[in-house]
Amino acid sequence: MGSEGCNPMKPRFLCLHGFRTSGEILRKQVTTKWPQSVLDKLDLVYVDAPFPCQGKSEVEGIFDPPYYEWFQFNKEFTEHQNFDECLAYIEDCMVKHGPFDGLLGFSQGAILSAALPGLQEKGVALTKVPKIKFLIIVGGAKFRNQSVAEKAYASPIQCTSVHFIGEQDFLKPYGTELIESCVDPLVIHHPKGHTIPRFDDKTLEEMHRFLDRLHKEVNTSYTEQEVSSQKAS
Question: What Gene3D superfamilies does UniProt report for this protein, alphabetically (predicted)?
Answer without folding.
Answer: alpha/beta hydrolase
